[in-house]
Each structure stands twice: as structure tokens, then as C-alpha cells.
Amino acid sequence: MSSQTRKFPDGFLWGGAVAANQLEGAYQEDGKGLSTADVSPNGIMSPPDFSMTQFNLYHEGIDFYHKYKEDIALFAEMGFKAFRFSIAWTRIFPNGDDQEPNEKGLQFYDDMIDELRRYNIEPVVTISHYEMPVGLVKNYGGWKNRQVVHFYENFARTIFTRYKDKVRFWMTFNEINVLLHAPFTGGGLLFEDGQKNEQDIYQAAHHQFVASALAVKAGHEIIPVSQIGCMIASMITYPYSSRPDDMFAALTQDRKTLFFSDVQSRGYYPTYMSNYFLENNIDIKMENGDLELLQENTVDYIGFSYYMSFVASTAPEHEAARTAGNLFEGVKNPYLQASEWGWQIDPKGLRTVCNQLYDRYQKPLFIVENGLGAVDKVEVDGSINDDYRIEYLREHIKEMKNAIGDGVEIMGYTSWGPIDLVSASTAELKKRYGFIYVDRDSQGQGSNKRIKKKSFDWYKQIIATNGDDL
């Protein structure tokens, strides 16, 4: 393969990605209602606190709601071509089932999008990113209730109509497969005995598939030039050995993720899931027309996050050597290093995932999350030398470039957390991802001042050379 083919295409969407609930703050300002994040003070794997008695860093975030102009100016200085963010459902429909949208919420995103456009930064909008209205949880039981499909469609149509002349790229759900691992965060699901109920989880997944298809249909009608993608939390699973049982265990593990992109990209339920439902007495209730809707309204591209890979083993002695990251877990890979939070670092796995997804779907890919969470130190002179972050991102970008050389079509790359924000998994700020440091700690103390890290200028150079200067 000629090295000339290993180039990022013209118009490649370099940028960064965030979620409303992790940086906006202003959690009850201008008519905003409570979201699932607002009642999750200890992160998305912990039980919610509906009494609101515990300190919750999500409530204040990094005050992006009031400082977005300053932050977007810094993104523009880095040369961002795209900025992925989510629209907080509860800013538009505070309770989820409101008859009319909240104008102040709509206006905030109007103003923010206008600011991005002023710098020629393409907005990439996630419709739902771990922040569904608490009202839909309490009054309807979350996504296991079919009525929530209607409320989501209304939300999607409202923002499509409002921003139709400003936003071309959309995603329907963030990391939709996380529903399996964090049902409250991914679907507003609560279980009486605290034990996950697969019947409810997969019923909720079906409702989200239907909602996603309805959003694709509405988006294409309202914004004919729109590109609407799905978004999965992606990783590759390696067999621990060449034992056939390990190979099949790895395949089975990957299917738990690929099921979600299969339905949204191919438009039908794969037979391996039909068999799983049969074997586990899961009965998905569908309405007339659901399957046709899924078939006729598939996504335009595959968005995904990639942070790590995992290993599958059927040998009992390997069960003690397990590791976790981004809500998933598997057997520890002895050939890989890990971050301070135990997330295994595998740049080559990104190339493998890109090839896997493109071979499977033949649709453009958009890497919308990838980054390193670490504890950063501010030196006496005010500098922040995050060479470890530069190394992590450089090696992943190299493998993304190699995937392009393999023939994979990749639209863009938005690193996770271009500015420090509240961690979704632990609701803390000491786990930092950004090119921009925010002077704020996990107790909410600090000046909130923005400081450029060493990686800021490095990423700026990556964008300026379209990935040639690594």
C-alpha cells in the first residue's frame, strides 16, 4: 500500500466532543428541568439520589452555560473544524412530556451554535446523551414505556426544525449500547429488587431503535442535507488464546455491542439476537410497522467512541485478572499498559475496530470520542506538561491514519473532552481529558480559570497539517 493513501481526506472533521450534563452547569437555570445526571451524584454506575441531598458536581459542571463564548474561542484557536455536543433534553422539555418547548433553552443553543458558526466550526449534535428528563423516569418508567418514543420524537422534531439551517450532522443516542450496562443512565430504568431485568432492558432498546428510526425519518424530511448517525461505545474483544472456546467467547462479547449498530445500520434484528431472546425467554413487544420503520430509516454513518480493548477467556483461572473501563469489563490483556484508572491502552485496537465496522456496514465512520483521563499537575510557572496525553492521542491518530490506508472511510475525529469536564463514570473532575485545564476540583472549588496545556498547541498543529505532522 502506497504511503500516499495514508492521508486524511480534505474536509476531515477534526475537533472535540462533550456532553451537556458534564460541562454546562446551570442545572435549574432558565427553566431547565431535572435530568438523570442531576440525580446521579456519584456517577452513572451508582444509584440515583432523587432527594437531591448529596453534592453533585454535574449541577455546576465547568459553567460552560455562561462561559461558552470563551471556550469556543479557545476551540477556534486550536483550529477546530467540528464540535460535538449534546442538547440537554430538559432545557427544551423540562419534564419530557411538556406541551410546549422552553424558549429560553432553545435560544441558548441558538446562540451557542451561532458562536460556533462564527468560527466556521461545524456543530455535531447528539440528541440524547445520558440526560433524559427525570419526569419521564418517575411518571412513565423510562424507556421501557412505549410512550417515551413519542416524547423523544417530539423533542427531535423540535430541534431539527429550530436548527435546520445551522446543523447538518446529528446523532440519535450517545453510546446506545450502554443501556445494557447502566440501565438508569442509558434508559431511565429502575428495578424493584435492584437486579437488572433483561426483559425490560431489551424492550427499552427496541423503543430506542424505533425512536432513532423516527428521528432519522424526521431529520431527512426537515433537513434534506442532514447526515444522521448512530453512536455506540465500541471496543474490540480479543480471544485470550487460540482455543476455539475463547474465540467464540470473544465473538459473543463483541455481538453485545454490534447488535445495536446492526439494527440501526442494517435495519433489522440479527438472527443471533433472535436466538438469544428465545434462549433467555425475552419477548420483545413490537407494534405493527416497527420492522418496516427500522428497515426504511437506517443511519447515514456510524459514530462511535473508542478508549480500550478487552480480552475474553473461558478459563476459570483468568476470572481473577479482570479489568474495567467505560462501563465495560473483561480479562486483562498482559500485553497492554493501562491508564491511572485501569483503562487498557490499545491504539492498534482502534485500527481493528475501524476495519471491523467498515467491513460490516460499508458506511462512513465518525470517531466521536477518544481520549485519556489523567491527573494533571499545574507547575509553578503555570504550565501543564501532559506529554502522556499527547503520546496516547498521537498513537491512536496514527492507527486511524493506517485504517484510512486500509480503505476505511472516516469522516472525522472529535477527541473526548477537549476541555476538562465532569467524569461521567465517577462524577469527579480530577480525571481530566482536556487540552484546556479548568481550575476547579472535585468538590467544586477553584477559580474556574481556563489554562492551555502542552497538548493544546500539539493538537493545533495536528489540525493545521491535517494529520500530516504527528
UniProtKB/TrEMBL annotation:
Recorded superkingdom: Bacteria
SUPFAM superfamilies: (Trans)glycosidases (SSF51445)
InterPro entries: GH, GH_1_N_CS, Glyco_hydro_1, Glyco_hydro_1_AS
Keywords from the UniProt entry: Glycosidase, Hydrolase
Pfam families recorded: Glyco_hydro_1
Keyword Hydrolase listed: yes
Family matches, as Gene3D superfamilies: Glycosidases (3.20.20.80)
Residues forming the catalytic site: 369
NCBIfam families the UniProt entry points to: PRK09589.1, PRK09593.1, PRK09852.1
Family: Belongs to the glycosyl hydrolase 1 family.
Protein name in the entry: 6-phospho-beta-glucosidase
Organism taxonomic ancestry: Bacteria, Bacillati, Bacillota, Bacilli, Bacillales
